[in-house]
Design brief:
It is built from eight helices and no strands. The two termini are 30 Å apart. Helix 2 crosses helix 3 and helix 6 packs across helix 8. The model has no long low-confidence stretch (mean pLDDT 76). The protein is mainly alpha-helical. The protein has two domains: 131 residues, no CATH class; 54 residues, Winged helix-like DNA-binding domain superfamily/Winged helix DNA-binding domain (Arc Repressor Mutant, subunit A).
Length: 185
């Protein structure tokens, strides 16, 4: 595969990192931007080890590097008090999101050109999600990408279901505006 631009995947990895929902106490040590930066560095250093042929395989490979990087950072932060349950839940989250992503990218009825269009759309949506206010982007990611019910999102965000519904409504409208503006340019 030809030389690739790791920066092209920054926005997508940022969305993936936000989906990991790390313990808020860890944010003092690292955040999703740190995970993305380290993931891109590791991917760049290991690019000769990538054996895939498609864009979807590259995205899955990057997602695995991101999950491993997050696991390493958590272990480092909790070096003296390991929590196997936290590691298992991170593994489960990474696996679930990887399965969802893979299914979306490789829809069986898609032609090769449709798959490429889907991959480009995924990168565009990732960039647009990262331009939203954080609470709107998080609500959209958790509800629409991770399938969490509004009531669970409200509980974890410490707000009402109506407030989450408002975040989703405003976020989706803004997301449409961003994507429409991008398609016209």
């Amino acid at each position: 595969m030809a030389q690739w631009d790791p920066g092209r995947y920054r926005e997508l990895l940022q969305v993936m990192a936000r989906r990991l929902q790390l313990d808020p106490r860890l944010k003092r040590r690292f955040d999703s931007s740190d995970l993305v930066q380290e993931t891109l560095l590791k991917a760049y250093q290991a690019q000769k080890q990538f054996r895939g042929q498609t864009e979807g395989e590259r995205i899955k490979w990057l997602h695995q590097i991101l999950a491993n990087t997050a696991r390493d950072k958590i272990r480092e932060a909790h070096a003296d008090k390991r929590d196997p349950n936290l590691e298992r839940s991170l593994d489960a989250m990474a696996h679930d999101s990887s399965v969802r992503l893979e299914a979306w990218l490789a829809a069986e009825q898609s032609s090769p050109s449709q798959k490429v269009e889907r991959q480009e759309l995924l990168l565009q949506v990732s960039e647009a999600l990262n331009r939203l206010p954080a609470d709107q982007g998080d609500a959209i990611i958790r509800h629409h990408l991770m399938g969490e019910p509004v009531s669970e999102i409200a509980r974890q965000m410490g707000c009402t279901k109506q407030a989450v519904a408002g975040l989703l409504y405003r976020g989706l409208n803004k997301l449409r505006e961003i994507l429409d503006a991008g398609s016209r340019s």
